[in-house]
Amino acid sequence: MSDRLSPPNPDHLEKVTGRTQFITDIEVPGMLHGKVLRSTVPHAMIKSIDVSAALAIPGVVAVLTGADIVGLNHHWGPSLKDRPLIAIDRVRYVGEPVAMVAAENERIAEEALDAIVVDYELLPFVTEAAEALEPGAPLVHGNHEAIKDFYFKGEAKPVAGTNIFQRYAYEQGDVEKAFAESDRCFESKYEFPMVFHYAMEPHCVIASFHGDSLTLWSCGQSPTAVQKVLSRVFDMPLARIRIISPHIGGGFGGKASVKIDPLVAALAWKLRRPVRVCLSISESMLTARRLSATVHVRTGVRNDGTILAKSVRVLMNGGAYADTGPAVAVKAANRAIGPYRIPNLSLESVAVYTNTVPGAAFRSIGGPQAVWATESQMDEIAEALGLNPAEFRNRNLLRRGEHVRADLRPIDVEMGEAMDIAAQEMSRIKALDGDNITYDGTALGISDPGIMPVASVVMRLKIDGSVAVISNSVEIGQGVRGVLRKLASEQLNQPIEAIEVLTPDTAIAPYDWGTGASRSSLMMGLAIEDAARDILSQVAEIAELVFSADPAAVRFCEGGIIFGNEKKTFSELLHTYYGIDSGEIVGVGRVTPYSNGGRLAQAPLFWETAAGQCAIAVDEETGEIKVRHYVSVADVGRVVNRAAAEGQDEGASMMAFGHTLSEELVYQDGQPINATMIDYHVPTIDKAPENFVTVLIESGTGPGPGGMRGMGEGAILPVAPAIANALAAGYGARIRELPLTPERVWRAIREKRGS
Amino acid sequence: MFLAPFKHHRPTELSAVFEALAKYGDEAAVYAGGTELLLALKARVLRYEHLIDLKRVRELAGIKVDGEELVIGALATHHEIANSAVVKQHVPAYAALSEGIANIRVRSAGTLAGNLSFSEPHSDPPSLLAAMGASVTLVSPQARRSVPAAEFIVGEFTTVRNEDELIAEIRIPLTRAGEGYRYLKFGHLERPAVGASAGCIIRGGHTRYRLWLGALGDHPIHAAEVEDAIAGVPVALLPDVLPKLAVSFASKISATSDLHGSADYKQHLASVLMQRALAAACAAASGERVSHA
User: Fold this and answer.
1) Is the pLDDT assigned to residue A2 strictly greater than 50?
2) What is the pLDDT of residue A7?
3) How far apart are the first and last CA of chain A?
């Protein structure tokens, strides 16, 4: 209970009183304001852009177009160098930046957008993934350079002369033979829509060139990736590019890798003045979205419910630019396996370009798409075999230590335990509620976080015992600063009040891959462990020097060190050592594939998992699903901050209610027709279940300090299939296309009843 | 998403509003809550050189009972209406409708008169106002006239209001003993896909009903043939006849397929909501305590 009563993240009070500084609150001397003119057509050559009328408007300082950037390394991308800083001669989706105005204020800049005239020569376009694969489909791109090990390890595998920008396959056992030996084979196709991240804070960046240097206040989740891309684009040394990451109002992958930073920097480069660009939420909807997917799953079973083989084919709609899509496609295939023993397994994934908003990483990349398909089918098979869905899952469930895939780390949690807890909690809730009118559905999700074991932290122990923790882990609302504070406090054995976690700034914070993939608490936790060891070895050495202490006996105690029977404050130690009453010890912590005896190198670093169970009631006449109760269970190894961890779990589940029940970006004639928050419906608090229970299992089996593993994404996985499974269980209606809108549900129930 | 530059006027008298309107003509628009107009201006769908803020015109404010009618001033917000003791007492069904409009931000700023003037089809109030026999009072510098709410909206974003007229007030007959009304809506997006408003009027052993549909077409739809067919049918017998009539009527409504749903689904929703709304209205008329939650 003490965890619950302790204050949550130190920044909460600042946030609720409106004092937290977000990028939009920052004012840089001489700063101009930029606005983006976006393509109104899905695919076209740009014949001309007339900016003269815009430039004539008082207060307009400059307009950036593709013509300005020819001298730069104008194409970039985290996997494929397929994206121009700003459209050069061609636009590939409605919403693509075509021109940018910099003006004295935002109002003038926006006014000037209306004065720019763009003449397009329309090209045939394609918005559906299946159509993009067809011979003769309009090609969204020519060939582009795949850049190996740039952001993710490995490289994308595009297919020349097609719209395919990624192709991935994996095979174990003999799938066809196993299908032939199976008693029953089940094959179905599942559709997952394009959905928007909807971070409350739209993308916002300030860029400023000064002398030979560039400073960017970035909303990006991966400051070092932003730094690297800008370094290539402007041919500048990394050390001259400084990325500062203040508090960010949510990311969910929509701000991962690199998004609008190069665009804003290009405008600042032209201006040679600082410029701020803050998108509207509708513009953010045209910046990144989750890759939609069609997932074919074929599963062969014996009549007793033993799975013999599984074949998964994923087709993803990656939009106009590959962005992080190549990695998403790989993960979608892997995450469709599930926590089951599948001796014969075939995975295939293809991601294609289309003339739509670029697809990008989104909370558990590829996971919800894959788990939606595979966990829906698990219930379908159970029903066909006359087995209870939980019993069917149990029969095939991997135990801790067994392999999901021969080449991956064995599963490190007991999924059966999580599933049982979910069922017990649901029974308890229903008994308390007196509920006997809802139907239950269950699903399990496992994901292999794409975590590179590459992170570092600097900890500066001051003479007064206070400690500055300096890293590039971005506070995007997930509470990472609070977690790092607590972990540093534990590792250095200092009171939490002594620890200060600084704002990420690449000028002073050491390299880190980025904030995403459920990695920050864990990776920085490991780095902090290492940095604490570094500080201890330095103070031990000094204690030996100045107090003749046995260095091996030196330990941290509150405010100082202890060795044998002696206790010295940090002040006594450093004063004696430096000769003046000042100074500090700088500790560096590093995580690499060689850390911890190489044990971090095998992929995945841990398995992020979730069991979800829902209880739903359906208004059969309108088709509206009401999720009355929801239980989310995950083994997170160890809970560092309970309020924040439960908040992450609840947030991930609630986010899934969106793609499950109402969210879908709809395209018609190449236009996104509902890309505003009025026509695109994100669930509000009144859609939250009456009872929502999160159970976090603390098995202590994760790779981080105290046995922690990463979390924050897993709970998004089981929601959609759990709800669809409940619908099928209660009403006999099996829907294989998300979202489960009232109309789809009504039709499915009506069809089932044959009326 | 910024408003284009405009000149802002804040008259305190109705006469000054009319003077400004006469002076600037097409270049001026009036607003109170701004929940509809400002969005359209920000999206640059509309553009005006002059915006006339009505909020200080006291003649347009207030909610009161006048004889047998509730009078809602043009400046009354949905939130004020929903929480007004007078409205809750005398036209409880309309108070309940107001409480369910959009979200608290819209309800706090948006006015009923603004909602009607804008006449966005996916809106809550018009069908219930029509079912309750409400009227809209329009004023111009020359005249004052009353238009039945049922006839006020003629199409998408189009009303019978003339350029030189303003809505002064909305008058709703007080709900008397033996009468009950209910508005129900359904949709999975921000705005309703379909709304249905029903009334049940029991007088001296004779029962009449009112049925209107909202959001489906570009103006409220009167289910007159259903009303006629069930006129005089006692409440208890309604379930025997209504379902067939509702389905039949709904199937003839011309609905369009869009983000809110396919045409046939909307027709189906219309028949479901008509039946549910009428049942609730009957319960209210019979004096049953009805939860409007």
Assistant:
1) no
2) 52
3) 54
Mean pLDDT of B175-184: 97
Judge whether B293 lies within some domain: no
Note the pLDDT tens digit of each residue in B212-245: 999 998 999 999 999 999 999 999 999 999 999 9
Confidence band for A144, pLDDT divided at 50, 70 and 90: confident
A23, part of any domain? yes
Question: Taking the alpha carbons of A408, A412, A416, A419 in that order, is the dihedral positive or negative?
Answer: negative
Q: Please report the number of interchain residue pairs, chain A to chain B, with beta-carbon separation below 8 angstroms.
A: 46
Q: In this structure, which amino acid lies at residue A628?
A: R
Both A111 and A229 in one domain: the answer is yes
For residue B275, the chain A residue with the least C-alpha distance is: A621
Q: Which helix (H) or strand (E) holds A88?
A: none
CATH number for the domain harbouring residue A310: 3.30.365.10
Contact B2 A107 (CB under 8 A): yes
Rounded Cα distance, A679 and A681, in Å: 6
How sure is the predictor about A11, in pLDDT bands with cuts at 50, 70 and 90?
Answer: confident
The residue from B173, B195, B229 where one domain ends is: B173
Percent residues over pLDDT 70 in chain A:
99
Give the residue numbers spanning the domain of A320: 289-450+603-753
Q: Does B269 touch chain A (CB under 8 A)?
A: yes
CATH code, domain carrying A29: 3.90.1170.50
Helix A520-547 and helix A480-492, axial crossing angle in degrees, nearest 10 = 30
Contact A111 B186 (CB under 8 A): no
Judge if ipTM > 0.90.
Answer: yes
Identify whether the C-beta of residue A339 lies closer than 8 Å to the C-beta of residue A394.
no
Confidence at A120, pLDDT banded by 50, 70, 90 = very high
Q: Which residue range is the domain that position B220 belongs to?
A: 179-285
- Is A90 domain-assigned? yes
pLDDT at B1: 75
pLDDT of residue B289: 55
Segment 187-216 of chain B within 8 Å of chain A by CB:
188-191
CATH number of the domain at B202, please: 3.30.390.50
Q: What is the mean pLDDT of chain A?
A: 96
User: CB B290: neighbour CB atoms within 10 A?
Assistant: 18
Residues of B in contact with A678 (CB under 8 A): 39, 189-191
Number of domains in chain A: 3
pLDDT of residue A687: 87
- A675's tokens: 């890309």
Instruction: Examine the domain organization and report whether B141 and B211 are in the same domain.
Output: no
pLDDT at B77 over 50: yes
Give the pLDDT confidence score for residue A366 in this predicted structure.
98
A44 within some domain: yes
Cβ separation A743–B5 shorter than 8 A: no
Residues 6+ apart with CB under 8 A from A660: A719, A720, A723, A724, A738, A739, A740
Same structural domain, A25 and A38: yes
Residues B23 and B109 in one domain: no
Residue A173 lies in a domain: no
The answer to whether residue B292 is domain-embedded is no
**Res. A1: pLDDT tops 60:** no
Chain A residues within 8 A of B191 when measuring between CB atoms: 678
Same domain, B129 and B112: yes
Residue A450 makes CB contacts below 8 A (sequence gap 6+) with: A152, A327, A331, A365, A517, A603, A604
What phi, psi does A409 have (nearest 5°)? -55, 140
Contact A499, A489 (CB under 8 A): yes
